[in-house]
């Protein structure tokens, strides 16, 4: 999920176009992108679209619902649960209890339906949520990731949104918290669509910190995210050597070994395997090149 494109739930004319685009995932938004007067109509339009999706379309489908404290949350969950939904993006959770409340709502909505359980992508959008990020990440087996919500997190604090040092410091906190919960971290939106270089720099910083990908608020940002979070040829070549050496070391009963002068053991092998899995999915290598049993 290198790229995730936001699609307003109140703009059904954009749904099919987004599905035909290059984004790995689509995040249909029922929250901030939809005026209060349009909430019900947007929910109904999106529900119809999700029900009509055919398997094998190749996108990860995410819906950002309205917050738990709003009168729309339960209705959103009831409307979107079904075969077309992969993940719920929970806005503004303040604690593990908020995540568990979302998970419980999904349990109720899914009961009796033959659907795969939806995952939860929890936003980190407040100072309290940042402080409790590891608890939020660990709150439910449904949680698969933490996402930085830059606007809500830093704008109320009068912090410069485009200060790279500040962004990197918070990215690191979110990534470490996600690591404690054994989930992935995902980078938030970059609002200045006229600054592609700024978007690219921020995405590159996120990738260096181990983030899975970056949100896009405009289609022009999608190829930037896809390029940044694509495994490089150097990474692929090194990973192929690592998995080959790991197989040989296992046959010899060796636990740690070196590749290209670097010490390699379990965590490095798993990272190499993940890189090769992504490279295979993107068509950069063939399945028989991975050398993974």
Features of the shown structure:
single chain; 293 residues; TIM Barrel; 2 domains; 8-stranded parallel sheet; globular
Short description:
With 293 residues, this protein is α/β, with parallel strands linked by helices.
Biggest sheet: strand arrangement: 7-6-5-4-3-2-1-8
Low-confidence segments: none
What structural category arises from helix and sheet content? alpha/beta
What's the domain count?
2
Radius of gyration: 20 Å
Main pleated-sheet profile:
8 strands, parallel
CATH superfamily of the largest domain: Phosphoenolpyruvate-binding domains
Q: Kindly report the CATH topology of the largest domain.
A: TIM Barrel
Number of strands: 10
Strand content: 15-25%
Alpha-carbon distance between the termini?
A: 24 Å
Named CATH architecture of the largest domain:
Alpha-Beta Barrel
Give the C-level CATH assignment of the largest domain: Alpha Beta
Order of helices and strands: EHEHEHEHEHHEHHEHEHHEEH
Alpha plus pi helix count: 12
Mean pLDDT across residues? 90
Net shape = globular
**Helical content class:** 40-55%
């Amino acid at each position: 999920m290198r790229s995730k494109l936001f699609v307003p739930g109140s703009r059904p004319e954009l749904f099919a176009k987004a599905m035909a685009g290059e984004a790995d995932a689509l995040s249909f938004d029922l929250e901030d992108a939809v005026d209060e007067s349009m909430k019900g109509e947007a929910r109904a339009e999106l529900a119809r679209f999700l029900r009509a999706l055919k398997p094998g379309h190749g996108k990860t489908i995410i819906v950002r619902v309205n917050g738990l404290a709003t009168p729309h949350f339960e209705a959103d969950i009831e409307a979107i649960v079904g075969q077309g939904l992969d993940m719920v993006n929970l806005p503004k959770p303040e604690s593990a209890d908020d995540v568990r409340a979302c998970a419980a709502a999904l349990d109720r909505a899914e009961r009796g339906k033959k659907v795969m359980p939806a995952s939860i992508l929890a936003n980190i959008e407040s100072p309290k949520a940042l402080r409790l990020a590891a608890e939020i990440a660990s709150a439910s087996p449904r949680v698969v990731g933490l996402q930085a919500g830059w606007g809500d997190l830093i704008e109320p604090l009068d912090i410069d949104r485009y200060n790279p040092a500040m962004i990197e410091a918070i990215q690191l906190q979110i990534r470490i918290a996600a690591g404690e919960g054994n989930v992935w971290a995902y980078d938030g939106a970059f609002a200045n669509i006229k600054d592609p270089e700024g978007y690219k720099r921020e995405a590159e910083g996120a990738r260096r910190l181990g983030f899975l990908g970056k949100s896009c608020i405009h289609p022009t940002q999608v190829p930037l995210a896809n390029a940044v979070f694509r495994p490089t040829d150097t990474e692929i070549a090194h990973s192929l050597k690592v998995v080959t050496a790991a197989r040989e070391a296992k046959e010899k009963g060796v636990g740690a070994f070196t590749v290209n002068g670097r010490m390699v053991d379990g965590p490095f092998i798993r990272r190499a395997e993940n890189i090769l899995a992504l490279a295979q999915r993107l068509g950069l290598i063939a399945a028989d090149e991975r050398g993974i049993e």
